[in-house]
């Protein structure tokens, strides 16, 4: 069971979290259009502290694929993670980015809310290399970081319907990740809010350690 942690905001966090064995170390990158985005130069400094085999996942919330392409060319992350709402950034634009950036895997966030989520997920199958199933507020331009779970029965149906590997996100932490894995059977699990320090976006390293261990133990 693969683990992924957001949002890493310092070289020290990147170093310690990759040493724990987390597979994907996520950094939020942008120009300040969304809160807490790291400019490209700062993201490069943080990413340089990620220790292999952990991989650098660069999350872009903007729907401007020209910006995403330029920033990804500068950073060369292992994974380009697209977090814009699907009505703003669709499968054709995702496919164009994949063609423009060979060598980078594409992870596409999919909002999980109702039956429509199945069709959204299928529309990226065979285009994205990973799907990230996440909670979403309908009015938001971006997907995720809400700290709440969604209907795992829909996520399970998506896992069964698509060919690409799926990472489950949304309100996961050390206390519920094993139950989520049993319910959804994803290839990986993601955590942001519930592995943060209380009242802060800095990571709680002990919570990250427990999340990672619980996820790995759930399939041992
Ligand atoms: O990492 C962020 O700060 C972030 C901000 C806005 C949207 C998504 C963000 N993170 C990307 C992810 O895929 C999260 O890890 C995911 O949304 C999980 O969120 P949470 O429910 O808070 O665990």
Q: Classify the helix fraction into a percent range.
A: 25-40%
Q: What overall form do the CA principal axes indicate? A: globular
Rg, Å, rounded: 16 Å
Mean pLDDT score: 97
* Contiguous helical run count: 8
- Portion in strands: 15-25%
- Text of the CATH class: Alpha Beta
CATH topology: TIM Barrel
Proper CATH architecture: Alpha-Beta Barrel
* Termini Cα gap: 9 Å
Task: Please count the beta strands (DSSP E, at least 2 residues each).
Answer: 8
What ranges have pLDDT less than 50 throughout 5 or more consecutive residues?
A: none
Annotated CATH homologous superfamily: Aldolase class I
The strand order across the widest sheet is 1-2-3-4-5-6-7-8
The topology string of helices and strands comes to EHEHEHEHEHEHEHEH
Keywords: Amino-acid biosynthesis, Aromatic amino acid biosynthesis, Isomerase, Tryptophan biosynthesis
Family: Belongs to the TrpF family.
Catalytic activity: N-(5-phospho-beta-D-ribosyl)anthranilate = 1-(2-carboxyphenylamino)-1-deoxy-D-ribulose 5-phosphate
Domain N-(5'phosphoribosyl) anthranilate isomerase (PRAI): 97-211
Written overview of the protein:
- The protein has a single domain (2-218), classed as TIM Barrel, CATH 3.20.20.70.
- The protein contains eight helices and eight strands; from the N terminus they run E-H-E-H-E-H-E-H-E-H-E-H-E-H-E-H.
- The chain has helices at 11-20, 40-47, 65-75, 91-100, 116-124, 152-161, 177-184, 205-218, and strands spanning 2-5, 24-29, 55-60, 79-82, 105-111, 130-134, 166-168, 188-191.
- The longest helix is centred in the last third of the chain and has 14 residues, at 205-218.
- Strand 7, helix 7 and strand 8 (188-191) form a beta-alpha-beta unit.
- It has 220 residues and is an alpha/beta fold.
- The radius of gyration is 16 Å and the shape is globular.
- The model has no long low-confidence stretch (mean pLDDT 97).
- The protein has an eight-stranded parallel beta barrel with strand order 1-2-3-4-5-6-7-8, surrounded by eight helices.
- Helix 5 (116-124) packs parallel to helix 6.
- The ligand O=C(O)c1ccccc1NCC(=O)[C@H](O)[C@H](O)COP(=O)(O)O binds next to strand 6 and strand 8.
- It is an enzyme of class 5 (isomerase).
- It catalyses: N-(5-phospho-beta-D-ribosyl)anthranilate = 1-(2-carboxyphenylamino)-1-deoxy-D-ribulose 5-phosphate.
- InterPro entries: Aldolase_TIM (IPR013785), PRAI_dom (IPR001240), RibuloseP-bd_barrel (IPR011060), TrpF_fam (IPR044643).
- Residues 97-211 form the N-(5'phosphoribosyl) anthranilate isomerase (PRAI) domain.
- It holds the Pfam family PRAI.
């Amino acid at each position: 069971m693969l683990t992924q942690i957001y949002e890493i905001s310092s070289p020290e966090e990147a170093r310690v979290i990759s040493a724990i064995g987390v597979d994907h170390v996520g950094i939020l990158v942008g120009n300040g259009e969304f809160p807490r985005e790291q400019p490209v130069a700062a993201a490069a400094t943080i990413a340089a502290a990620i220790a292999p085999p952990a991989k650098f996942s660069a999350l872009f919330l903007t729907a401007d694929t020209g910006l995403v392409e330029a920033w990804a060319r500068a950073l060369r992350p292992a994974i380009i993670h697209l977090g814009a709402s699907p009505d703003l950034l669709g499968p054709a634009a995702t496919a164009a980015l994949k063609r423009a950036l060979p060598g980078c895997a594409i992870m596409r966030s999919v909002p999980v809310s109702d039956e429509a989520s199945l069709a959204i997920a299928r529309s990226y199958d065979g285009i994205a290399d990973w799907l990230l199933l996440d909670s979403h507020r309908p009015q938001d331009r971006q997907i995720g970081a809400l700290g709440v779970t969604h209907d795992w029965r829909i996520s399970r149906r998506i896992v069964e319907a698509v060919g690409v590997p799926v990472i489950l996100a949304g309100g996961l932490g050390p206390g519920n990740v094993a139950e989520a894995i049993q319910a959804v059977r994803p290839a990986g699990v993601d955590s942001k809010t519930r592995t943060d320090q209380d009242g802060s976006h800095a990571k709680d390293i002990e919570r990250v350690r427990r999340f990672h261990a619980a996820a790995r133990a759930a399939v041992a």
